[in-house]
Fold these 4 entries.
Entry 1:
Amino acid sequence: MQGDRRGGRLRGWLLDGGTERAARHSGPGGRPPEDRHHPWWKVMCLTGVDYFSTLGYQPGIAALAAGALSPVATLVLVLVTLLGALPVYRRVAVESPHGEGSIAMLVRLLSYWPGKLFVLVLLGFAATDFIITITLSAADATAHLDENPFWPSGLKGHEVLLTLLLVALLGAVFLKGFGEAIGIAVVLVAVYLALNAVVIADALWRVVTHPSAVGDWTTALSTGHGDPLLVVGLSLLVFPKLALGLSGFETGVAVMPHIQGDRQDSEDRPLGRIRGARRLLTTAAATMSVFLITSSVTTTVLIPPEAFQPGGPANGRALAYLAHQHLGGVFGTVYDLSTIAILWFAGASAMAGLLNLVPRYLPRYGMAPAWARAVRPLVLVFTAVAFLITVVFSASVDAQGGAYATGVLVLITSAATAVTLAARRRRQRGRTWAFGTIALIFVYTTVANVVERPDGVKIAACFIGGMILVSVLSRIMRAYELRVDHVELDPVAARMIDERATRRIRLIAHEPQRHDPAEYRAKLAQTMADNEFPDDSDVIFVEVHVGDPSDFETDLLVRGSVAHDSYPVLSLTGSSVPTALAALLLEIRDRSRRRPHIYFDWSEGGPGRNILRYLAFGQGAIASVTREILRRQEPDPRRRPHVHAG
């Protein structure tokens, strides 16, 4: 008994997060209360812990990938950022102002099972992006610790263990509860950018005052790539490897609900929030572009190429290398601590994103267990996955770069595609061509990145395969849930029920074909003969039209009418016939305080085939499934509506 109580307390603690609103998590999907909105520049810092923290490793990755071409390739990255990703996400901010992001835009354009499958694929890539953000950022934080001269030598060489500890600490924060993220983010971003500005300003001064270093770089550039067109061409080819510098845009639109809008903003037209989000995106992109160009120039010119190689002192930490070399060990250590903090907190932003992204889609589609709405079980799952990724990649920044870039690029490509389709639907020809061109650029970048570094697709494929498997199993296990959130009767339907509240209420499940009087007359005669009830005065036909059978949870609007002036009809649209009928029967029981009777014909065909039809198309085995849903929803047989089949 004591063990049962401990187990119950543990279960209660784990599932306590299920009642916790997304407002407590400042990542994608967060919905803060009205008094918790913030100026756009503060919310930019929340995005910035992910976006700006890439300065910790981006210059080193660029130098390793492009060598002497790094500044030119980084310039290409900046142009793609300012002329491609930024316009796309400024448009996403207008089209999706409630934090749903580009995935929701595509969801609105797609429906039925292909749409749900597409969502699962995008969620797989989004999970890749966010999980690798956690593991890569923690691994780079470990690299900064390991290379610091004040770090004890006995703790060096244990990168995997240290990274696992950082990931575990991040998970512990979310198990405890994630609160005022924006205030912490503002401090971290302000300190980190200020320290980076000092390091880069000092490095630029050294570049200007030591022209020989610039000469060595230009000589290496001209010797290896004498033709300027060849330089540009090779930079375009190298650009996909630098795609890490594009991270943060999806998070930028996802945190929109935190932005303080205008007093006259409405839920349908939050113009102030949209304006703030666009300022956020523009300011972040412009700031990051300046840091990317200057950091790439200074690190390429001042750091020996061999230092960027795996195991080298500048590998994954180029600016930290300059801080220690030129500004001393104390300043370098302060810079390391700032970098470690923002890299670790970048993982916090990603974890918050996962916690809000997964419950938004999967449980709503019936594609996740009910506990997936709770925070703490998901934290444990995501932390375990991050542990696995860290071990598989040996906490290597370089090894995880391809996977991270793939997740980032797929999300940006989907966003570019979404805004292109939205512009085309509005017949905006100029914007359609412009966004279509941007989408093609990102398609090329994504394909090139996948070909060069397929790790991202492999990891995303694991996530996608796991999601599809869990989704199928969850959909099957939850097949007999009620799956209806709310039932509303229109005035005619309500009057039909109220008039029969003192008598026996009989419903006939009917699937009309011709809608003529003879069809209703024949159905009524057959039902009365099969079930031997004496008169037809209280009979109501119920007709359910299946809308999108891939939807899991729906609201029902029940409309009443009288067909051919003789036959009362209740008509409704739902994702499946049995769930709609079960919800209607329970609503009638609660409204009339009487147990209604419903009459079915048995479905033709084998039971296995009919169950598959129900799972996939919302039809098949209607009588038996309706009865089973009622049995599970109402355990007391004395209160359960009657189900008859003949």
Entry 2:
Amino acid sequence: MMPELINPVLTGFNPDPSIVAVGEDYYIATSTFEWFPGVQIHHSKDLVHWRLLTRVLDRVSQLDLRGCQHSGGVWAPCLTYADDQFWLVYTNVRSHGGPVTDSPHFLVTAPDIEGPWSEPVVLGANGFDPSLFHDKGGKKYLVNMQMGSVGAVGVEERFDGITIQEYCHDRKKLVGERIKIWEGTELGVTEGPHIYRKDGWYYLLTAEGGTAFNHAVSVARSRNLTGPYEADPDGPMLTSANRPDLNLKSAGHGDLFQSPDGSWFTVHLCHRPLQKRGVPETAWDQDKVAILGRETGIQRVAWPDGEFPRLADGGNAPSDIVPAPEGPLYPWEDALRDDFNGPVLNPHFQTLREPADESWLSLSRCPGSLSLKGRNSLFSRFDQSLVARRLQHFRAEAETGLVFSPTSPKQEAGLIAYYDRNNYHYLRMAGDGKGGCRVGVVSSDFSPGMERPLITVQNVCDLKPGAKIYLKMMNEHADLRFAWSLNGEEWNWIEQTFDSTNMGDWSSAISGFAGTFWGLCCQDMTGDGIWAEFDCFDYRIPVKETL
């Protein structure tokens, strides 16, 4: 019986997938935006089971995110393999949402997928979503969407077609003329380009329609690399648009690849949005929020010689279950709990905008614990003492034990569900200003239509400084609950149920492309630099998901 893969294959915030097959190994690179280290690499041998293998950009010289706004940073990396090495091109978006976008491109290479990866080569800043095409004869070309010039009303024409320019690796620079090769179809918002050579044709695959509910994968082709390109007359190869019956929404931003048995597939971006809490159920996508962010799915593709690639099952809608290639299965172990007994963090953890440093995050200061030094507030774009992992399931729990001795209400530490600096729920211990501590939940909600974030604070108990307290949160789709305990066995559940749909795509008044993270953090707005000690981070999946 042919094995099946269940979509999405990469759950939680794993958008803009780029895939490469090397021998019997598959590697997917996904965007990480303002989270550090940059560019996640997942590995599989069967397309069914995936493991988080590494992250490529692990030092500031490769990725400087200081001051990065939410959903800036790494957009749509492209991973390829040629000349016995891996190539990764990526954009570090330093500004977006305003009249112009600052988006320099970079290239790094490595002989092995786990590195060491080179220092970056700068490849201009002409738009975003760069990819590298390796043509016959060893020539290489940078392909990306082009940002337009500022228009008469002072607003940049955001999407101005797809361009190509030769890259000389010996000289480590772009050479020759930059040529626009494709304007896109009537769907517009043409981005995410990849080029493939097959059967005497050059095929150009692009994302179109925007990354929300009208997202799509479109394909065009030409006998010449620089065009002119002819669009597939059957329209987009993949889309979820106008299909409220589909589980996988926003299907788009794809990358084609071939398995060792000769079968063709595409990876693609997708959403699984939830109905907004408190909003009556409707068929309209506008009433939904994707708390897990944009995820990665895989579809089978039929690509006969001389024809356009199309989904193997016919039509252009994504399927939840897809036949995998024939062959043995290779399941992986995934350590969800970290007891902080080793020299490094669980690989699922990332930090905000900067690498973890012993000066504020330590596994040796208090052996068997993670020590976090309080720094800036959660609203800051700098010096965030926050370490977190993706929420990857609609039903999940997380637990930690905390020892903390705050002396001021401006000193806080605890367990957080975080989307951005304006949208989070935070179960924390803080000083009460009278020599004691208070435990409670701080929520920040900057939903569309609000002029500024709505901050609410609910204190639930008092505690002596230095006493150990256990903190827990549990998510059930749109509902988020918190609990605390003094012994880790008898739990006191906070009566209020919090809204998890204020965290995710379309939840915020500020444009966002990420997903919910769960983690640990510590703030000290006094500047005294107080430390908090956490004994573990236990992420659990209480039931198998069906959504």
Entry 3:
Amino acid sequence: MRVDSRSASVVAFRTWMLKGLVDRRAGHLGPLAVDVERTHPWWRVMCLTGVDYFSTLGYQPAIAALAAGLLSPIATIVLVVLTLAGALPVYRRVARESFAGSGSIHMLERLLPWWAGKLFVLVLLGFAATDFMITITLSAADTSAHAVENPFAPAWLHGQEVPLTLLLVALLGGVFLRGFKDAIGIAVALVVVYLALNLVVVVVAVVQVAGHAAVITDWWAALSAQHGNPFVMVGIALLVFPKLALGMSGFETGVAVMPQITGDRNDTPENPVGRIRGTKRLLTTAAVIMSGFLIASSLVTTLLIPQQAFQPGGAANGRALAYLAHEYLGPVFGSAYDVSTICILWFAGASAMAGLLNLVPRYLPRYGMAPQWAAAVRPLVLVFTGIAFLITWVFQASVDAQGGAYATGVLVLMTSASVAVTLSARRKQQRWATIGFGVISTVLVYTTVVNVIERPDGVRIAGLFILGIMITSLLSRLRRSFELRATSVVLDSPATDFVMADADDYDVIRIISHEPDEDTEVEYRNKSRDERRYGHIPPGSPIIFLEVYPSDSSDFEEDLRVRGIAKHGYRILQVTSGNVPNTIAAVLLEIRDQTGLIPEIYFEWTQGNPISNMFKFLFTGMGEIAPVTREVLREAEPNAKRRPYVHVS
């Protein structure tokens, strides 16, 4: 009884752990997946992306001051210009051309065919993972900084940033293990309160500056003494603004949540005009709001906070606006601001975790490059939480140290998006759009390269993610090589007539596998003669040819459509697929299920070295067809009596 109880507990735990919280019907995977009818106004969805985008106000002004010093306001203006004139137009076009929630990565996937596209997507997923993972750890670290620096925080909490950050990450993982619901409602409340408190702090700070105009003249005098004339200042700002790239996050998330935006009644899946319009409003409104806060916060924090306070260990390090809230509005309001910041920063980590859980199942299982458990949320939560623990320990919960890695992930995704829309405009022969997006791409490439050179941590972390994804993907693809890959098999009317006629009239279905290389009557006659002779097919028994036309072998999951045609006096089933043996197996099983008879298929042995044929199968979907088909059938149907028969001669 004890053993049975233990086994039952293991089964129950396994069932709970592998419970798929994935809604494929909406085409939007992960815990934020909703039924297609459960959509929301664009401004509410904007708040969901805003917990990531707007929460950077918690640490962006301090990082900008630390990176650019007295030039912070000018460098921030450069950043805002790039945001409004560069990133915003790019992602408005991404919203128009990739409206299913797959973002710019899907655009590049379509532009690069076969394995090149898949490998490129894996690299981008590595950078996306860097972006989202560092968002989790960076937000948790800054949450800890705000909690520790609060004047009401107990003294023993100082110096405990790493354990506190690990606790916050663990709590975040616990939320997703239980299930992540009502995210948008929580996000709306957090964003409204947080932006309102930030507006109060900024307005009060502007009033302080207006009442002490000398701080402006002192700042300008110090700036002029350091850098000379305004042209030099702008030039230096152009050089340092890549360090401020944290303030450009949120665009990729904005297009990823498109399926949750309410569209027009006459929207269609192929042309969701209302949903696209709502997404453009989301992107534009968020960018304008954030740009205003970035400029204002950078200016007042530079003017009112001593530069030494921004240094590591300083009172304003990682929490510049919180510093002003305590300084000018008192400890009670300052503590309320801290609580609001803590909540939205922690929830920004939740948004990033949801982004990861949406992104990984969207691509890797479809490529056959993830274990089957990757379709379930909870195992992925444990994996990502463990990685977040490691990153927090390596960076010792430092906001400044993680800024470069976060910026790298953001910039690489934005650069890939700008390249995608540039190539799209060029393909559509839109000359001025191609030139404009090309200029934006150049600027973003420069920004990314500078950021990587100055802060290589992001590339190192992304490299580890890319390496891990590549190794996992390769092992998974090898392990899943003998799976049925067809998500559906549909026989058209002629194909159905062929197999049903043989089933009804002869009570047997015999299929001959034929490589579609020669389309002549002689070829089919010789093939029929040889298979009847060497495969011992009884004289007069009907036969049907099955031909698989090769397509993109890098695809893993496919919807198969089997076409029936009559040619040269023979009946032929034709199907297009990137993998021959797995497709043959799927078609045979579908014929069995439709007719109730076990079909028989006849092959000839493949010529060549078996090892080279195996590698050919893995990468081109061809190779050793007969034995692989039998192995796929063996794994798909454990009951040998219901398994289609394979003859090889």
Entry 4:
Amino acid sequence: MRTLRALVAAALLCLVPVLPAHAADLTYDFEDGTTQGWGPRGGDVSVAVTTDAAHAGTSSLLTTGRTATWHGASIAAPFVKGVTYRVTAYARLVTGQPASTIALTVQRTPTGGETTYERVAAATVTDGEWVRLAGTYLFTADSTDLQLYAESSDATSQYYLDDIVFSPQGDPTREPISTDFEDGTAQDWSPRAAATLESSTAAAHGGARSLAVTGRSATWDGPAMNVLGRMGKGDKYALSVWVRLGPDTAAGRLGLSIERRTGGTPSYERIVPPTDVPAGQWVQLAGTYTLAYDVDFLSVYLESDSGTFPFYLDDFAMTYIAPKPIQTDIPALKDKVPFTMGSALTRPDTLGVHGELLARHFNGITPGNELKWDATEPREGEFAFADGDHLVDFGVQHGMTVRGHTLVWHSQTPAWVFEGADKETLLRRVENHVRALVTRYKDKIAAWDVVNEVIDENQPDGLRRSKWYEIAGLDYIRTAFRVAHEADPDAKLFINDYNTEFPRKREALYALVKQLKAEGVPIDGVGHQLHLNIEQPPASYVEDTIERFATLGVDQQVTELDVSIYTDFVSSYPSISPELLAEQGHRYKALFDVFRRQASKLSSVTVWGESDDVSWLNTWPIPRLNAPLLFDHDLQAKPAYWAVADPSKLPPLVRKLEAPAGTVSVDGKRDLQWDLLPDAPLDRVGNVSAGFQARSAATGMYVLAEVNDTTVGAGDKVTFTVDGTAHTVTRAGGPKAAVKRTATGYRVEALVKKGVDVDVTVRDGSTATSWTGKVTAVPAVKLTSAAHRTPVVDGVAEPVWRAAPDIRTATWIQGTSGATARVRSLWSGSTLYVLAHVTDPTLSEESPNPWEQDSVEIFVDPGNGKTKGYTDDDGQYRVSFTGRVTVGGTFDAAGVKDNVTAVAKTVPGGYVVEAAIKLPTITLAEGTLLGFDVQVNDATGAARTGAVTWNDATGRTYLDTSHWGVLRLAD
């Protein structure tokens, strides 16, 4: 028989909350016939020992006479401040009582504060079986009147309690938590509100059981686990859970979040953002979390972003991640560059090894979110500066330059800012907000991103149509800069934007800055975000941008640099290869070569996070393994780090290039064949750079080098080395080669032997730049033309279409037979017209997915960039046989979604699609080359059973433009 085992009195009185190793559990089993210290809570409540029911043994504690939900059995809780307790109990309703939620709750009164009520554990209980209640409890503030009591959601429920155990924990912050629900209980999970949690055998990820969640009252209502005391401040934890939609739920999104409270004020942080959970599938939600605050409440919970659908969860795990020490035997980045080396950060990044890494390598910081409007002024006139103060003070204490990000932005701005706002009201709110922030951090924040992302190069005037602009025009920008300058005349004031390395956006921002400076607006500098990927855009684009804005006499800073290992928005790697990290390292080298050359025009370079584990790209645009920064997930140096600190330690890079079949005249002229693809860049060294291409032919391999070198010297030469055989061409020419002078240097064409291993080295005296890699022969790039005519878009192939050549889809990417199309193209003004006559006797739109319906997809790249990914004006335009139009491309296709109009008509044996696609980002003219392809999707019932393209054989036409054909605009 179990007996009452009391905690030693010394533990209750100890000033230091560390329990001895022999500290015992406190168990209440009621087998001695007494209530063992438990008494009634509520005027008419009765608490008594009974032998009518028992979880184990012969006795339990019966509670009756309740008339309010908070009535029940209560005990003076023997909890010690700073010690975490595991609390378990078993509950069962008296026969005939309706099911209700029974909870164990702590009441305490902090010294100088108000009484609080903190739920420890809860579960749905019936009269049919004993249900386990379990949770952890910790309090850290001096408190009096500690009581633990049982309460019920039903005000009159009568219930039994048994086997109540308080277990003091040694160091619970290092102990893993796992729940698999195989014991038939909720295993420490409890509802946040009205949700019902029940063990279920209807579905399981592992084993035979999961936890079914039903009856949710809101998106945030669902299962929660109290983890107070199980996480240490500054410690990092891996959390994982498997989820599945409930029955009769076709679609839903679920995420994993943390609720924390300090002084009763709640905050919510996402560990895993809401993620698609396809019907019938288990999906893992996995992420990491670092506790950065002192808290008096901490809970992990699951939520949806919309709806209250039922779901299952299974196999939850939370594990402490022991940090690796940072490397102290490598150079500090800030000592290796001629400008401020900055990092974005959040509060957790200031703690532990993350804080050590920041202090060692960076002399500049940018708070990532803590100074944005929603964080600093969530309600008008109510400012919150605690997190901002913490980060700014961290920078000041470590002698770092602090950048303020950001005062005015179209995103993360509370709704109240625009509610009922005319121009005068909005500008007053701007002035109040800007003045409050800049004044608070005067002499601490050296530079501010005053306005952020105000450019939309797809608009005629290049300006984003945000609510700011719609209400106040440019005056919101003028006001923000004026007030910021008045509040701190010594702070440098920046306008900040992304994609400034692309020519259209570059010129739109340039025009705005030039205009505002001419008006006397106090703009000191331009911030270039530079969220790039491992391949695009070329480093030369970045250099062109810096040189362009230098003509305005403004300071420039790189403000948000990272380099994604992905070139599209949907791919995901299970692991990252050393070769990919090496490629990323060389990409960083090319960028920092630019930054060093432009150091006189560039005062700071900030990476958007110190290490891969804290990067926003781990969850955007989708959750996936990414590695975009200089230090890895364990804060260890990567090739990207060495690209900045010491490029000589980079691993060798072997590039890859395709050589399509083709024949050119070796005469130094740039044939049309070369214009079908962009040149592969050779990085600039000194004042020399180049581009390279190859074509495979029966007689050998044609090669092209476009050299940028304006100074003519005897040492100027290009050497093509193929499988060990060198072929050198000077400016004077060479065997089977031709050279022609160009406006920026010279062009080399040559015919060399076929081969795979290729090195191209361009020399200018003692300076050299090179490309080394493997060249693969591939089929020719298909070329067709569009006639200069204007059709009527009505689904009828009128005679005007006969002026255009006919092409056919014959490259199968799914299946080997099925629907195909004959396609023609016309152009007029800024519009491309496409006519597709599809042979397909059986038509279907049964699938909810448009790409699995009978349809034609038209792919257009106005710049013919042939990139592994989509740029903002590349489009995927899909037209079903009924005329339904869907658009893809970049992440949200915002730049192209309104470009297309189309008509479809069924005809005997198939259907006709006629489409008009506006191309506003370029000027259409005879000779213009467009990246172009067409795909026909063949549906049988609700499935796609075939797909065929004109040129692209990769099956990745919807992800990247690199293997599309080419459409030439003719007369």
